[in-house]
Specification:
This protein is of the alpha/beta class. It contains 18 helices and 17 strands. The chain has two domains: about 5-60 and about 395-445, Urease, subunit C, domain 1 (Roll); about 65-170 and about 185-385, Alpha-Beta Barrel (TIM Barrel), CATH 3.20.20. The longest helix is centred in the N-terminal third of the chain and has 17 residues, at about 100-120.
């Protein structure tokens, strides 16, 4: 991989030197072998012959953002839902994502990656897919992530129990719906041995801790999994030195299910099973009590805040300020475009910083722009089990984004952190470098034909709905049970 020399840029390092080392008004970045070699003053004699030179004047260099929770199958579904409850959304999304061909899996993942790259996201956890899957689906998703050039965790979303949280809690299904459910069988659990085989096989084929693709076991949600499956995921992660990714307590009904099954909170049950550790990252984590926050902090669990999708589905507001105060590591995610309608991390950062402010009189407890940016960089790095991304520092992998300071969001250039969170939308992203490779330049994707991906994606959802028309009609009836 050729060297890259970024010259005379403003640099927001977010490095481990603390506040004094976070911003360089004008400096250089030397990248070699996919790593950052030098930041600040670069000796011209140390620049390798043939290095690519990027004129950084008029640009802010910042670490690439980490989207610690998204669903690539949802990329085809922006604008399809509004006003749906969480169970209604789950049923409708199931109909839109079931039975996809490998090519549809690939294009959807590439579409998701395109928007993320153009918005300055260099790393993501793809909680994939939305239902049962086979080796051919994994292969298609991995190929997409490889072709995109992004740094990606493919979180294999597994389950072996029913989805009790999206069925009516106080009444059986009407006879007609019950018969349709049995006939369509939209969410059939796989035997544990089969689930183990696909996780282990995917790790063997695709997991590359020194490259850009890693594979995690990723239970869809503990309330949809047996203890045996959860322990299996724990053991696989321990054996292969992996993270574990899951949804956790996204809806209030999941609290009641856990209490009924285990006689304790879901977080306490996960602790009893030995799953609470720094390997575990938990998306949403809304309905947690103070004692559970203490548990998450004590075990080093990473909570992935998804403020936009939480608000859109009305599932609740996660107590992020309380978590931060107790020392919980918090990352940030966009969730899938089906719930959020985009995968723009700048929107997620802005909302994360502002969401708790009207409910908190003491402004000292407000989440700051710096904390929100930390969620989207350092926190995300911890979620993906990478201690060498999320900052611009010698020895780190070279995931760097250049923002055009000539845009309205940066004019005048007053404060890099506050404007990054409160002013920037992702529209000022000019150049995106992942692992030392220039993926986006001049605001255009250079590594693959993004226009061709968009053109191929346009008719896909209509074709999927036509193919799944029986399942879609059933999902609409199920959604009506949750007004």
């Amino acid at each position: 991989m050729s060297a890259v020399h970024i010259k005379d840029a403003a640099i927001l390092t977010l490095d481990t030197l603390g506040a004094a080392g976070r911003f360089i008004e004008r400096g250089d970045i030397l990248i070699d072998g996919g790593s950052i070699r030098t930041v600040g003053d670069v000796d011209r004699q140390s620049v390798p012959t043939g290095a690519r030179v990027i004129d950084g004047r008029g640009f802010l260099a910042a670490p690439g953002l980490v989207n610690a929770h998204t669903h690539s199958p949802g990329a085809l579904s922006a604008g399809t839902q509004d006003g749906a409850s969480h169970p209604a959304f789950m049923w409708l999304n199931q109909a839109d994502t079931s039975g996809r061909t490998p090519r549809e899996v690939y294009v959807s993942a590439m579409l998701n990656a395109t928007q993320m790259l153009l918005g300055g996201i260099t790393t993501a956890i793809d909680h994939f897919p939305a239902q049962n899957f086979g080796p051919e689906d994994v292969a298609a998703a991995v190929q997409a992530h490889r072709d995109s050039g992004m740094r990606t965790v493919l979180g294999l979303r597994v389950f072996d129990d029913d989805f009790a949280d999206i069925f009516p809690a106080d009444q059986p299904l009407p006879p007609g719906l019950a018969e349709e459910l049995k006939r369509l069988a939209p969410l059939p659990p796989k035997p544990l041995a089969e689930t183990r085989a696909i996780i282990e096989g995917s790790i063997e084929r695709y997991h590359d801790p020194r490259g850009r693709i890693t594979v995690f076991p990723a239970p869809t949600n503990p309330v949809r999994c047996s203890d045996e499956l959860l322990v299996m995921c724990r053991d696989i992660a321990d054996r292969h030195d992996l993270g574990i990714h899951t949804h956790l307590l996204e809806s209030k009904v999941q609290v009641a299910i856990a209490e009924r099954r285990y006689g304790c909170s879901m977080v306490k049950h996960l602790e009893d099973l030995g799953l609470l550790s720094s390997r575990l990252s938990c998306a949403h984590t809304i309905w947690v009590e103070p004692e559970d926050i203490e548990r998450l902090a004590a075990h080093g669990v990473v909570v992935v805040h998804n403020p936009e999708s939480n608000l859109k589905l009305g599932t609740g507001i996660a107590p992020i300020a309380q978590m931060l105060a107790k020392g919980v590591t918090v990352a940030l995610g966009t969730d899938g475009a089906v719930t959020n309608d985009n995968v723009v991390m700048h929107e997620a950062m802005r909302l994360a910083a502002m969401l708790n402010r009207t409910a908190t009189r003491d402004r000292r407890q407000w989440i700051t722009a710096a904390q929100a940016l930390d969620m989207a960089t350092r926190g995300g790095a911890m979620a993906v089990q990478r201690n060498n991304i999320g900052r611009i520092e010698p020895g780190c992998r070279a995931d760097v984004v250049l923002y055009d300071l000539a845009t309205p969001a940066w004019t005048p250039f007053n404060d890099p952190v506050r404007q990054m969170v409160f002013a920037e939308t992702g529209a000022s992203v000019d150049t995106v470098i992942v692992d030392g490779e220039v993926i986006v330049e001049g605001g255009e994707v250079k590594r693959f034909d993004a226009a061709a991906i968009l053109a191929e994606a346009k008719p896909m959802l209509r074709a999927i709905r036509e193919r799944n028309r029986d399942l879609y009609a059933f999902a609409q009836k199920m959604a009506e049970l949750f007004p």
